[in-house]
Structures are given as structure tokens and as C-alpha cells.
Amino acid sequence: MKALERIQGSDLMQGVIALVTTGRYGKKLLISDINAAIIVTLMLIPQSLAYALVAGLPPEAGLYASILPLIAYAFFGTSAALAVGPVAIVSLLTANTLMPMAEVGTDEYMQLALLLAAMVGAMYFIMGVFRLGFITQLLSYPVMKGFITASSLLIIIGQIKPLTGIYMSRGNLIERFHTLDISTFHSVSSIMGVGAMLLLFWTRSKQGIAITNRLFGSFATLSRRLFPMLLILVAAVLTALLSLDTKGVATVGLLPKGLPSLQLPGFDLGLISQLMLPAFIITLIGMTESIAVGQTLGAVKRQRINPNRELLGLGAANFAAGFSGGFPVTGGMARSVVNADAGAETPIAGALTAVFLSFGILFLTPWLSYIPIPVLAATIIVAVSQLLEFPSMATLLRMNRIDGGISWITAILVLVWEVEAGLLVGVILSVLSLLANHRQPYMAELGLIPNTERFKNIKHAQTETLPNTLLLRVDESLTFLNAGVIEQAFLQRVSENDELKNLVIVASGIHTLDASGASMLKRFCQEMDAANIKLYLTDVKVPLARKLKAYDVFKRRPEAMEYPTIELYKKLQSSN
């Protein structure tokens, strides 16, 4: 079971290939992967159909986006559990991107979806090759919380039309409700859709969980996860038997027979320039979710993933989607959890899922055509409702006004303006908040706790201090953002003490400095020399010491940065 771990440090393309060719992929691993693949396939079919509709594409596009992308990821990816395919948020972003550019249902719209997927794949590859995964740090926790919550709410509201027949246009919250037309309400669709939704919510309730636990025992969790597929099958049978499609109930309709044909997306520089920013946002969202899910599930089984190779795997998956009739894909949390729980041990489980799904497309197409759209809408609402985090956003606002404010502003802008614009504003606010925090570093005057070798803020403990000596601790690196502010703070402290002879800057909280920080320290050293005040830096970390030496900050007095704080304190104490 440790076979995958042993090869994950190897070069590109050697993960799964090495596992098979070296004979380490045995019967036990194969059986585990087959079991997981069967279960994920049953879950993936309705999800793929539903998320294609969210993206504004025909249902078969969801199936196509779940075949070759899974196989491509298996060759490149390193996560045993990550299940790649269409997901709700990326589907919404795809629709928001393409709808202003082409009419839904047209060949032009589908071609744009292919081009978008290929561009997302290219961006994943670039980030993987150049190890740019750190860019995901731009999406802070508050921004992601607000973005995902608001996007999920938009997806849920967008399912009102397929669920009940009530018309509303796509767009932001204001545009949707402005075009609301209750006259299009369809009673049969509503009964079927709302009934399915209530059943799905019931299976997740305490009572539903208790009953399924009694009925299915150790298989209860699996039964609840496969219940949506069972419900869709029952609904499809009822639709066929009662001819509900002739009574106004929308169905998936007859799907094209056979597997997707390979095709090149049309590459137009004008369209590429328009899709560049949306593709980058989809890439950013996708890799943030995928790597987080892969690392979380990998830790459970003690299987290590390589984030940069994951980006290559996701890039290959999106390229495959772009060349096989799909749309942008990424690793989904729900499917990945099911994949892990079902026993997936290697990325081959994903490839087997694609094989089983291909058989489903080849032999089950006539039956899939009877799947009612209202029931698919119900499955989307129930699945996406788990992503609503309004209570935790309220808690975040109480805990930290700035982070909570950023989260709520992001969510509100996503709802009433545009999804991408709300996300970008949230990122900008997070960066500005970070810069503001760096610009105003925490600075404390220290004293020695009696009978110890520990120093604390004189405002927070009873401490001893030395006459004519000031100890200041700066808890921030010295950069162009804060160099001037810190210098002014130093000068202010010096001006308040006319008898000052020794200024000790405790550098335990200073991790590094840039040219601006070094220039400030040089200038400040000269000012202290002119005032006949000795300047020291204590508890200097090795990386900081190297930077100080490289910038020749203490070239004339190298001993000024070689003392631990306690040694310098005792030395100054003995000289008084």
C-alpha cells in the first residue's frame, strides 16, 4: 500500500507508469480502485449532466468532460483520491464568462467552452512548470469564504427555473429577480423537483441518517451518497412510464450516441484576449480547491502529493476537456471524498471511472434521455447548499472586523455585480489589508523579568530595565513598505530619552530585509553615531545576518549584531 508513496518523488510521467511497469500495481490495489471507480461513476453521471446545464452547455458536455480528463489526470496527477471533473463553481464561472460572448446552445458557445478549457489547461501547465502554485495564496480565507458562499447562492437561485419552470434570466442577483416571471410556473415540474429536493435534504437530516443507519448498517454512508443516483433513476422511470415529458416536464433528451470525437478548439487571438482573465480566475479557483482537497485526503492515508505535478495533472485534464467536447474541470470535494472512502488507492481509479462512464454512454444513452431536469436541479441545490457559509462569515466578522468585512464585501459584490469582479475586489482588499499590516509593525519596549533570562513588554509584566539603555523589539521584516515608518518610530523613541546611550533592537521578529530596509538601517546607524548612541541588533537569525552583511549595514561595527539579547544585557549592566 506504500507503493505510490515510494515513487511520488520521481520525475514527470513516472508515477502511474512506474507503478504498473515495475509490478507494484497488484491485484489488491486493482480491486480497491475498481470498487471506487464503480461508486464514483454512479455519482458522476448525474453530477456531470447537472453541472453541464449550470455551465449553459448540453448535458452530454458534462459526460465528455468526465472521460478523457480523468484519464489524462491519471498519467500526470499524484493524488490517489482526487476525482477530477465538472464542479459547481467552475461551471458557474464558465457560464458567466461565455454568455456575454455567445448565445447559449449555439455552436459558437460550445467552441468558446472548448477554447476556455484549453486556455485553463495551458495556464495550469505554465504554473506547474514554473512552480507558481504559491499564487493561490492571493485567495485568502475570507475572500474564498465570501466568494464560494455567494457563488453557491447564485447557483441555487439559478436552479429555480429548471426546478419550477419560473423564468428568470441569468446574471447577478438583481438581474435575476428583475426578470422573474411567475406566470411560467409549471406545477408537475415543481412537484417532482421540490419533492426530490425534500427527499435529498431528508437523507442528510438527523432522522434520515438514523433511519438509513438502521436499515443499511455499515453501508449507510454509501447508500446516502448514492441516493441521488437512485432517485434520478426512479424519476427517469416514472417520466418514461407516465410520459411526463409530453406534459411539460423538461428532460435531458436524447443524447448523442458514442464517445466524444476529438476536435481542435478554434484559436482566435481576439477571443483569447477576452478569455484571458476569466481563464486565469478559473485556474486560480480550481487549483486552490484541488490542491487543498488532494492534500487533505492524502494526509488521511499518509500519501504525499506533489503540488506542482498536480498542476500539470489538472492542466492535462483541461487540455483533454478542450479537445473532447467538454469544458473546464477541476478536482471536486464531494466526489473526491467518496472516491477516498470507496477505497481508491492510486490515480488509476480515476482512469477506471472514465472507462466505466464510457460504457454508460455507449449502452445507457436511451435511458439517460428520460432524466427529468427538475430532479437534476434538486440534486444541484442540495449539493451546493453545503457550500453556504453565511453563519461562519458572521462569526468571522465578530472575530476580526477586517477579515469579516472583506468576506462580506466579496460576497455582496459577487451577488449584485459580477462573480469575477467581486472576487478581484476581494483579492485587492486582502492585499491592501496585508500591506497595511506590514506598514504598521508591532513594536514593544522590553525589560528583563527578575531572576530569569526572559524579556517581556514592560507594559505587560514587571520587569527590570537598564539606565540609559532602551530595548525595542520589532515584530516585522524590514521592507520598502515599512522602512520609513519604523525609522520614524525609532527616532521618536530616541527623542523621548535625552540620556540614552545604548539602543538595542531585538531582531528575533525580523526575518529578512530588502534594499530599502538596509538603506534605512545604514542611515539610522549614522544618525545614532552622530548622537553618540551605540546601536545594537540582537538575536539576529542567520538569514537576516547574511542580508545585513551583504548590504554592509554594520561594516564598521560588526560586533553590534553578534550578541544574544541576554548576553548584551549583562555586558551593558556590568559596564554601568
UniProtKB/TrEMBL annotation:
This is SulP family inorganic anion transporter. The chain crosses the membrane at residues 34-58, 70-93, 113-134, 188-205, 226-244, 264-285, 311-334, 346-364, 371-388, 408-435. It is found in: Membrane. It is a multi-pass membrane protein. It comes from Reinekea marina. Gene3D superfamilies: STAS domain. Residues 459-576 form the STAS domain. The keyword Metal-binding does not apply. The keyword Transmembrane helix applies. Keywords: Membrane, Transmembrane, Transmembrane helix.
